[in-house]
Amino acid sequence: MNPMSGTTTLAQKNKIKQIVSKLPESQLFFTEYSGHATKIAQQAVREGIATVVAIGGDGTVNEVGKGLIGSNTSLGIIPIGSGNGLARHLKIPLKIEKAIQFVMSQPAVLMDVCFLNDIPFFCTAGVGFDAEVAHEFAKQNSRGLKTYARMALKSFRTYKSETFQIDNEDKTVFAITFANATQYGNNAMISPKSKIDDGLIEMVLLKPFPFGAAPIIGVRLFRGTLPNSRYIETQTSENFSLKAKKDFLIHYDGEPHQLSTNELSISIKKQSLKVVGNV
Predict the structure, then answer these.
(1) Which domain holds residue 156?
(2) Where's the DAGKc domain (predicted)?
(3) DSSP string, 108-143
(4) Same structural domain for residues 178 and 78?
(5) Rounded to whole angstroms, how far apart are CA atoms 165 and 167?
(6) CA 217, CA 213: separation in Å to the nearest integer?
(7) Which among 6, 103, 93, 95 is positioned nearest to 50, based on CA atoms?
(8) Do the Cβ atoms of 171 and 163 come closer than 8 Å?
(9) Region at 206 (left for phi over 0; alpha for psi -120 to 50; beta for the rest)
(10) Does some domain include residue 278?
């Protein structure tokens, strides 16, 4: 459990602790630093544990999940983050008691895992405007959709579209998203037709657009009709390659990260993670 996740109150987190403490054959660990959840998950695999449950947001889910790739240990999710993108895609209840019941009762299924260079991601990853917003959002003391929207508006005023070499073709774009799942989180559907068990990645290009089009694009994002926009181009493949004029600032499952390379390779490992959910 990530004690710092999302907008969940201290009382709600204490409630989770009380419920979990009463469950048979369960043990609750609290993450203490970045990467700690991955180490806990890897130890669980070595011990032959059936399921490791990530209690947190998409960042915590990513940390736990990367320690379980290719193993027989399943990933469970109790979503208490800001966006909960993977949980929403998997139709996991957002209410704590129902989420716990879901994890305890549902079978595990296999899902794909995508990689941005050697960094695994389960929902989305990308470069451009979204990465800038994720970088600013990570600096804030408060979480949630309102804070994210405020950072997006702030970044929108100053961000300039960039030119990337995409599979050896130069394209000027506002943002590029690589989607394994349908959404970023909060039901912001960047790639409504994505499936996490089809062995394919959707690359969604958001082209430069006038300021007046921003509200319409935002509405389409949450209504699941973004692919209908003239400013959207979607390509589907098992791999993509990108080059930039400077080292990439990326986001993966909502987490910002500065790379020390201007080259990206995006790939997929088919059905390589067991997860409790509905694909």
Answers:
(1) 120-268
(2) 1-120
(3) EEEEEEEEETTEEESSEEEEEHHHHHHHHHTT-S--
(4) no
(5) 6
(6) 6
(7) 103
(8) yes
(9) beta
(10) no
Phi, psi of 15 (to 5 degrees): -65, -40
For residue 8, what pLDDT is reported?
A: 66
Q: Describe the crossing of helices 58-66 and 36-46 by its angle, rounded to 10 degrees.
A: 40
Query: What is the 8-class DSSP label of residue 83?
Result: S
pTM of the model: 0.92
CATH number, residue 193: 2.60.200.40
Q: Which amino acid belongs to residue 149? A: A
**Cα–Cα distance, 255 to 119 (Å, whole number):** 11
Length of the chain: 279
Residues 246 and 156 in one domain: yes
pLDDT of amino acid 22: 81
Tens of pLDDT along 177-203? 999 999 999 999 999 999 999 999 999
Domains: count for the chain: 2
CB-based contacts of 254, cutoff 8 Å, min separation 6: 57, 58, 59, 82, 83, 85, 123, 134, 184, 185
85, containing H or E segment: helix 85-89
